[in-house]
Amino acid sequence: MAIVRSYGATQEVTGSCHVLEVDDVKIMIDCGMFQGKEEEKNAEPFYFEPSTIDYILLTHAHLDHIGRIPKLVKEGFTGKVYTTAATMDLAEIILMDSAKIMSEDFQTRYRKAQRKGQTKKLQKPLYGPLDVEQTLNMIEWVNPEYDVYYDLCEGISFVYRNAGHILGSAFIEITYMENNDSHSIVFSGDIGNNNDLVLPHLAKCHKADALYVETTYGERNHQPIDATIKEFKETLLNTLENNGNVLIPSFALERTQELLCLLREMYENDELPKCKIFLDSPMATRATEVYKKYANELIYKCQENIKENGSVFRFDLLSFTETPEASKSINDVKSRAIIIAGAGMCNGGRIVHHFKHRIWDENNAVIFVGFQAEETLGREIVEGAQWINILGEDMIVKASIHTINGFSAHVDRDGMIEWIKDIKGLKKVFLVHGEPNSQTAFKETLKKELNVDAHIVSFKEEIVLK
Length: 466
Description:
- This protein is of the alpha/beta class.
- It is 32% helix and 22% strand.
- The chain has helices at residues 63-66, 69-74, 85-116, 129-137, 225-241, 255-268, 282-293, 300-309, 324-329, 350-358, 377-382, 413-421, 436-450; strands spanning 2-6, 18-22, 25-29, 55-57, 80-82, 140-142, 149-153, 156-162, 170-178, 181-187, 210-214, 246-249, 276-280, 318-320, 337-341, 365-368, 387-390, 393-396, 400-403, 428-432, 454-456, 462-465.
- The strands form four sheets. It has a seven-stranded mixed beta sheet with strand order 6-5-4-3-2-1-22, with no helix packed on it. A seven-stranded mixed beta sheet has the order 7-8-9-10-11-20-21, covered by helices on one side.
- Helix 13 links the parallel strand 20 and strand 21 (454-456).
- Helix 3 packs antiparallel against helix 4 and helix 3 (85-116) packs antiparallel against helix 7.
- The longest helix is centred in the N-terminal third of the chain and has 32 residues, at 85-116.
- It is globular and about 70 Å long.
């Protein structure tokens, strides 16, 4: 008997974690961190015994899909982790950065608690850098290649397909035997938007009995990429020509690399006025080097950039500010700066400091180029907050706010329909990784467009696959 139990990304977009049990074998698909309004779940014990998990199959390296793996290892997991080589390299960057942020945050809260005599009430970090090192070095990591079938154990095999979401991302097809019959289940992870800026298109899924699919944008379509680029350029150029500054909260993986490709192209085409461009994210800088390492997995244009000057993304106007001192020096640039900084949802990172120095100035612009989860600062700003709290200080929002969603690394509603309709033999569809309104809308669309009945998965729900 095959059972799937879901412990995250259920009627929400973070904390992805599903466990497929086939007879006595337990396979975990992703072990992500909760973000936004569900953050407190990260500190809770797992709802299963970590030592009973035999394998982890990772879809990609975003924190909401890998962020609790060191916690799982701390609490007893000793099995194997399967993921693409690029995802493994990116996971090291993401997990180390996560450990560093949690440690720094704890030290700040500890000093405040000391002054109040409340240190015993503090929640310790989920894990530290040493835990990440142990996760990477003491656990066996296996790197499957795309489109190659692997035997996981007797009676269970899998294949990774390119998901086109970020470098190394995959959707996973798992085949298992039950009563001498072969069955298959696909876990989509996050699937890509086919915008052709950095990555090849999402691969097709040809066959599956059951599908667990993301629904991040299940209720709407993205703006076409040409219109998106046009809007981005106009916003950027209007702000620079008025001697303003452009702040771009950006995710370290994929979105940052897309923006760098676009800005490099504008520079090469003489579209940019005199300005300075800063990538103010050490994590994004390290991730960008990984993209160069795996340039053969990028689109042809990116590979040509390597041949031209040895870099996919670098050009003359661009500066990488890795140290805190270099980041602070950006404050000395009063006008015509483009600042790309994390975190993508503004729930920490250097972008918050740049907001403090510039979001109150009506000459400046903030461009959001990615999804903003509920109860994050980014969501608050996108929804029209006139005042926000930055590092304990209330601050007015006078910069113009722009949301440009066509850059999304997630497929939109129609893209999901197109992908799903090609899957032969599909009997069951389970909706995960989406907010309730998005999932309800997509469930209705599936029924209308494909006559498919879908089920919205609940937290800790157990589903028997028949």
